[in-house]
Amino acid sequence: MAYSGNYPVVNKNKYIGNPNKVIYRSSWEKDFMVYCDRNTNVLNWCSENPVIKYFCPTDRKWHRYYPDFYMKVKQTDGNIKEFIIEVKPKRQTKPPKKGKSRRNYLYEQFTWTKNQAKWEAATRYCKKRKWEFKIVTEKELKIGHK
Questions:
Q1: What are 66-102's pLDDT values in tens digits?
Q2: What is this structure's pTM?
Q3: 88 a catalytic residue
Q4: 35: domain CATH number?
Q5: What is the count of structural domains for the chain?
Q6: Residue 68 falls in the annotated catalytic set
């Protein structure tokens, strides 16, 4: 997923921030941006905002987490709901399995532990605001699924 670039926002009034400086870091993020930009039920959205502080157990330090997206959505029942969205491959949403090389397994375990800390901080952040934290994978983006 090494695919990045500038996203040309169509509905600039919906984007929170500078609509001329929207960067996607994967084709999946770009697909999600298109969804947010063009879906009439998405009232507002932005990328890599808000910034959420989290404590990472791998290095025992505080860091800043920039979730992929924030969005405010009009639900089918008419209610307004706010979300923090992280776009990830499904395989990265589960703990790594042994059986790989020790080096790969340790790297994946390190990444998993760091992501868990980020996602727990995002969940707490959202809960305080009555928002919802969601991880969106290729399944929800309908990539590679028929």
A1: 999 999 999 999 999 999 999 999 988 999 988 778 8
A2: 0.89
A3: yes
A4: 3.40.1350
A5: 1
A6: yes
